[in-house]
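Milestone M4 deliverable, item 7.
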Amino acid sequence: MIGFLVAGLIIGALARLIKPGKQNLGILATLGLGLAGSLIGGLIAQLFGTGSIWELNVIGFVLAVVAAVLLVGTAEALVGKDKARA
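Output delivered:
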């Protein structure tokens, strides 16, 4: 479980580094989006037949980072809309 949290934090941090611009997300948001991205990426990789969602493999990791980048972009868009209204 701790390994999953560390992987989620790494994936979330990579996603924030890959996505251009400044994101107004805290460490908990980064962790949450990284965990969600790793679950989504793992599920997609499992559908491709690369192994179990809980196994560490290259395709699953790449898909997890891509999913996390998309989630960071979505979260940033939602946070930006809320700030524009205030």
